[in-house]
Amino acid sequence: MQEFLQYIFSGITNGAVYAVIALGFSMLYGSTGLINFAQGEFVMIGALSLISLWKGVNLPLPLAFAGAVAITAIAGAMLERFAIRSVKKPHPIVLVIITVGASILLRGVGMLVWGKDSHGSPSFSDHAPYDILGATLLPQSLWILVLTLGVVLGLHIFHKRFLTGRAMLACAISTKAAGIVGIPTEKMVLLAFSMSAAMGGIGGVLIAPLSMSSFDMGMNLGLKGFCAAMIGGLGSSWGAVVGGLLLGVLEALGVGFLSSGLKDAAAFVLLLLILYFRPSGLLGTASVQRF
Amino acid sequence: MKAAGIASIGVLAAAAVMLVMIAPGQSWGKEPYRIGGIYAITGSSSFLGDPEKKSMEMAVEEINSRGGIDGHPLEAVILDSEGDPTKAVLAANKLISKDKVIAIVGPSLTPTTLAIVPVVEKAGIPLISCAAGIKITEPVKPLVFKTAQNDVLAVSAIYRHIQGRNIKKIGIITVENAYGESGRDQLKALAPKFGINIVQAETYGAKDTDMTAQLAKLRAAQPEAIVCWGTNPGPAVITKNVVQMNMKIPLYQSHGVASPKYIELAGPASEGVLLPTGKILVAEQLPESDPQKNVLKSYIAEFEKRFSMPVGGFGGYAYDGTYLLAAALKGTEGDKKKIAENMEKIKGHAGVTGTFAFSPQDHNGLGADAFVMVEIRGGKWHLLK
C-alpha cells in the first residue's frame, strides 16, 4: 500500500509537468493547427531563466517566475515572427520541420548562454515533505498540480470569455473567414505562439526545483509532453491534463510493477494503443487530419 | 552570468573550429613530436572531454617548458569527438593521415575508444585511452593502453567499505547507458565475493526528472544500503529523493559523480554520501608519504591558476596520458613500435590518477590504491581511512 501510494505520488508529480508541456502543444494546435517541436526547448529556457533570475540575479521568486515566463514568451514570439511567418508557402509539414530546426537552434543557444553543466534550484517553499500513510509527497508536487490546474482554467476562461480568445478560436476554424470579418490573423498566430511558449516556460519553472536543468533537457520532456497531448487529444486543454497525469502515473506504475527498464516503453505502448482505438485522443472531439 | 556567457562563447568558438594547435613558442633545434588528442569536448560528455583537453594542453606546455623530449618539442593536435563513435573514427583518421601524429591520447569514452582501436591498430599508432571500460585493455592489445581506473576497482572499493560496516543486503540503482550497464555488471559479478546480496536492482533514464518510484521499489525490498551508479545529474536527483523519502540507510555513489558539481546540485542532501574517487579530490588530506601527493599538488595548482575553475576528477586521465607518452617517447626518435614497448616498461610512475606500473600483461597499470573512499561532510570531501 505504502509503495502503491508512492508510485501514484511520483506519477502525479511527473504527470503534472507533462500536462503543462502538453497544454502548450495542445493550445498551439487548437489555435493554428501546428505542432511545435521546439516546445521542449521552451521548457529548458523557462527552467534555466528561472535559475538565472532567482539564484543568479537574486530577484524575489514571483518576479523571477514572471521574468522567466516572459523571456520564454518572447522567444516564442520571435520564433513565429522570424521563422514561421516569413515562409512563402506555409504548408503545415514545412512549418513543423522548421520547428524541429528551431529546437536544435534553441538548444545551441541554451548551451551558449548557460553552459554545458546542469543547474539546480531550491524548492519554492521550505516545507518538509508530507508523509501520507508512509508515502512521501513533496510540496513542490502540490505547487505543480495547483499551478497546472490554474493555467488550464485561465486558458479556458480566455477562450470562452475574452474577445481575443474567441478571435483566436475563430482563426483556428478558418483563417480566411476570420480575416474577412476583420480579425488580425497574423497577430493572433503571434499571440498563440507566445502563449504556448509561455506555457512551456511555466512547465520549466515548475520542474526546475524538482530536478536538474541543463541545455539538453528539452528533447525528452518535449517528447513526453507531445505524447501526453496526443493521448488526451490534441487541441483539448482538459485532454492535455488527463493525458499528462495518465502518462505520469502509468510510467510510475510501470516502474513499480514491471521493471524500471520498461518505463518509457509502457508510455509509448499506451500512446500506440490509444492512437489505434481512438485516433483523436481520449478527449479530442475534432476529426484529426493527417498531413 | 554575463561573464560566464562570454567565457562559454569562447569555449564554443574554440570547439567550432574543432582544431586546437599548440605550437611551441621558442625555437627548437629538432623537429617537433606531433601527438594527437581526441576528446568529447562538446556534447553530453563534455564534463569529461573539456577538462581532458585543457589538461593535455597544460601537460604539453609543461613538458616543452622543461626542454621537451630529447630536445624535441611536443606538439598536440586536439580534435572533438562530441562523444560520437563515428566522429571519433573520422578524427582518428584525420590525425593519422593528415596530421601524421605518432601517438594518440584519448578518446574520453569507452564506445568511442573501442571504435577507433581497429583504426590505430591498422596504422600502427599507440593509443592511450582516457576511458574506463575494461574491454579496452582486456584482452591486451599491443598498442592500446589506458589511464582511467577500471570500474571493477571502484566496485571493490565500495564493497570493501560495505563489508567493513557488516552490511549484507544492498539495493542498486544504475543509469541506462554504457556506464551504468558496466557498473551494474561489475556490481552483480563481485557481490558474492564480498558476501553481499543484491536484493533489488533498478535502473533509471539519464534524463529522468524524478526517481521516487524506483526508490520506493528499492525500499520495499528492505536493503541496508543503496549503491547508485551514474553520472550527473541523475545521481544528484536520486540523492535528493532519498532524503525526501526519509530513507535512513547509507547511500553510496560511483566515482562518476566525483566532482564539485555533484555537491552543488545535490545541496545539503549530499551530506553523508559515500563514494570512491581518485585521490585528486582529497589531495590536501593525503599523508605526506603518499607518492602522488606532489604531482597532485602541482597539477591542481596549475589547473586552477590557468583555467580559474575548480579541478575535477577527470582531466587527470589526459594529463597522465600525455606524461606517460612523453616518458615512453624518450630515446625512440618517434619510432611507434618502440613507444609501445617503452610504455610496457614504465613502473612506479606517480600520476594524478594513481601510480602506474605497466607490463606486457597489464595495459592499465593501476592497482587498488587508485581509489580512496570519501564521505561528503558539510559540503566537503572527507577522506576515510
What does this structure look like?
- The complex is a heterodimer of chains A (291) and B (385).
- With 291 residues, chain A is mainly α.
- Helices cover 73% and strands 2% of the residues of chain A.
- Chain A contains eleven helices and two strands; from the N terminus they run ααααββααααααα.
- Chain A has helices spanning 2-32, 39-56, 61-84, 92-114, 139-161, 163-173, 175-180, 185-207, 218-232, 237-258, 263-277, and strands spanning 130-132, 135-137.
- In chain A, a hairpin with a 2-residue loop joins strand 1 and strand 2.
- In chain A, helix 1 packs across helix 6 (163-173), helix 1 packs antiparallel against helix 10 (237-258) and helix 3 packs across helix 8.
- The radius of gyration of chain A is 19 Å and the shape is globular.
- Chain B is α/β, with parallel strands linked by helices and 385 residues long.
- Chain B folds into two domains: 16-149 and 294-370, Response regulator (Rossmann fold, 3-Layer(aba) Sandwich); 151-277, Rossmann fold (3-Layer(aba) Sandwich), CATH 3.40.50.
- In chain B, 41% of the residues lie in helices and 17% in strands.
- Chain B has twelve helices and 15 strands.
- In chain B, the strands form four sheets. In chain B, strands 1-3-2-4-5-6 form a six-stranded mixed beta sheet, sandwiched between helices. Chain B has a four-stranded parallel beta sheet with strand order 8-7-9-10, with helices on both faces.
- In chain B, helix 4 links the parallel strand 4 and strand 5 (127-129).
- Chain B is globular and about 70 Å long.
- Residues 14-18 of chain B have low confidence and may be disordered.
- At the A-B interface, helix 1, helix 4, helix 9 and helix 10 of A face helix 1, helix 2, strand 8, helix 7 and helix 8 of B.
